[in-house]
Structure formats: structure tokens, C-alpha cells
Design brief:
Blueprint: H1 6-15, E1 37-39, E2 47-49, E3 52-56, E4 62-67, H2 77-87
Antiparallel strand pairs: 1-2, 3-4
């Protein structure tokens, strides 16, 4: 899930060989339901996405969620690959 526009995600997918779809939530309708959006009246951005990781299986079941408090924090790729393997989705 990305708060970027679908056209941006399409361009990214063309430049990077992806096996999975990155869904766009440009209007920020799903992000609040996953606890992955901040609304801050004091921020110049006002509403922005947190960095979050979700693994969703083919049936739409959420198998893994990790929402970072700081959008600059990245999940270690080994931790993400471990979560993917443990979820049974890969």
C-alpha cells in the first residue's frame, strides 16, 4: 500500500521487476483503517502516511502488520523476508 499516486507506482513497477502488486491509497481512505496515517494540524503536510509493512494473502487476509512510528525508519529486509516466509504467502 502506498500513498503515492497510481501513475507513480506504475512507473516504479516498470523500472523495478516486482512479483507483487503495490496498491495505491492516494486519497488516503484505507491507511487510517490500518493505523498507518497521521493527521497533524500543526504539520504542513497535515495528513501523511506512516511507513508500514503489510503482508496480505490472496484471499485478502492480513498476515503481517508492522507500522513504524517514524516514517524514516525502515524495517530490516531480513525481518521482512522472515515475516513473508512465516506468513506462508510467498
Amino acid at each position: 500500500m502506498s500513498a503515492d499516486h497510481a501513475a507513480t507506482l506504475d512507473a516504479f513497477a516498470k523500472q523495478n521487476p516486482l512479483k507483487h502488486v503495490i496498491a495505491a491509497d492516494f486519497r488516503r481512505t484505507m491507511l487510517p483503517a490500518y493505523g498507518a496515517m497521521v493527521t497533524d494540524e500543526k504539520s504542513p503536510i497535515y495528513r501523511y502516511a506512516k511507513r508500514a509493512y503489510f503482508i496480505i494473502d490472496r484471499q485478502g487476509m492480513v498476515r503481517y502488520v508492522k507500522v513504524m512510528d517514524n516514517p524514516l525508519d525502515l524495517l530490516n529486509s531480513d525481518d521482512l523476508l522472515k515475516a513473508l516466509k512465516e506468513s506462508g504467502v510467498s
